[in-house]
Amino acid sequence: MGGFLIYFILLLIIPMWAQFKLKRTYGKYSKIRSTSGHTGAQVARMILDQNGLHDVKVTESRGMLSDHYNPLTKVVALSSHNYHEASVAGTAVAAHEVGHAIQDAEAYSFLRLRHRLVPIVNISSNASWIFIMIGLFSAWSGALLVGIILLAAGVVFQLVTLPVEFNASSRAMDQLLSHNIIRNDEERHAKKVLNAAAMTYVAATAVAVLELLRLLLIYTSMNRS
């Protein structure tokens, strides 16, 4: 019983810690004005143009930290603060999202794989828990196994997401430095913002892997008994 309690506490603490770290780090560096004086929108447009991605648009996205790149519409969407303000955090986030646009233009393998997994995961993520709950409540190991297999697709998606995000951050730093958009201590500060954002993906992956392992142990125990 104690082991399960610790496990569920970890499931809650890991993502909460990652989100807290991101909000605290972002909150700190969103208040520090970048020395370049460029808004996130300007930074994104500058890097896109420098890489010949003139067809990719930069738009404003409602909501805090709603920043993302849509490969279908070729749009870099930045949350309002990052879009309009000239901050270290906004600069880092804008460059990161453009990093995804560059990945898309170069047909980065992990990004392409993640796109292919999206329709599969959209179906399997919901269906998996139906089979898992049936298996757990009825002690039907076959249903549980089907649920585990479907859930595993989501775990694979999470694992594939990690190199996509870390690579986008690496590209972001390269672009910011090569075009002299950040200077002096800003490089260290921008890395802190990007690392904090990356930890949210690491936390989500860790939770997904732990849950998959727990269900595999339950399935093994069912078959033994």
Automatic annotation (TrEMBL):
* Membrane spanning residue stretches: 6-22, 117-137, 143-164, 193-219
**Keywords noted in UniProt:** Membrane, Transmembrane, Transmembrane helix
- Cited InterPro entries: Zn_peptidase_2
Q: What is any Pfam family matched here?
A: Zn_peptidase_2
Q: Any keyword Transmembrane? A: yes
Organism domain of life = Bacteria
Q: How is this protein named in the record?
A: Zinc metallopeptidase
What is the organism lineage in this UniProt record? Answer: Bacteria, Bacillati, Bacillota, Bacilli, Bacillales
